[in-house]
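User: Second chain of the day. Same drill as before.
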Amino acid sequence: MGLLWGLLGVLAFSFTVIFTRVAVETLSPLFVGSGRAVVAAVLASVALVVTRQRLPRGAQWGRLAIVAAGVVAGFPLLTSFALQAAPASHGAVVIALLPAGTAVLAVVRAKERPRRAFWVAAGAGALAAAVFGSVQDGGFGALHWSDLLLFAAVLAAAVGYAEGGLLARELGAWQTVSWALVVAAPVMLGLTVLSIALEPPRGSVGGWAAFGYLAVVSMFLGFFAWYRGLAIGPMAQVSQVQLAQPVLSIAWAALLLGEDVTGATIAGGAAVVLCAGLAVRARPGGRAGPGAVPSFRPR
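Assistant: Same format as last time:
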């Protein structure tokens, strides 16, 4: 069930770089990165109030701040600025390095101990993602500022995913992302107001539609499934399902943005999916710590 929920989350997220690329063509990246979090925070607040969720306790607030910094602020803002210059396909492939980062942090935080086969498959997946990117327009031949922003986005999201996956076992999946959105709301609202003052938004119909998807699905509903999958776990294995995301994103880029899909792209995508399958099938070795025991209990 963890893998199934993870796949649903990945499907939702696979449109993120595509619609971010569309949104930043007519809206400022600061507005896209911060404004979508503000809209999602309003939805999250309504959901928390209507369902009468209890407040997080003690150290949970600090951990929610880590989640908020990673996936509510860091990843959206960094990718919005990066995708002003980088093609959507290239952004999707660099972000494919995220599962390896999440897996490492899962081992550190959740005390999960995957077998060697898992690490071999995960490493092969990261390598396949890098090769996959080298055949795309704007590949890894030269390191641009947009690449640095994307790598920073990967690190930010990996931290947020790992911490959020653990918190989801205590607070529930949708509750975790909802509280993280609420925690980040004051800062993101301030950035949104600043972006409007600097450049009043005058997006196209397509730009606003893309922004709506980013706010409602990428920033809110997608995390319901993703954090639930990580909560059920094992986190290191479920995180590898995201290796399929660049393949899906490339397909959407071809269908929605008209980007070319070559034979090399198809071969690289097949290699990424194969590595993802091998990784998720690798059973964890040894005993995981108490924090790694799946105990998803929505409240």
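The chain is about 75% helix and 0% strand.

User: Great, on to the next one.
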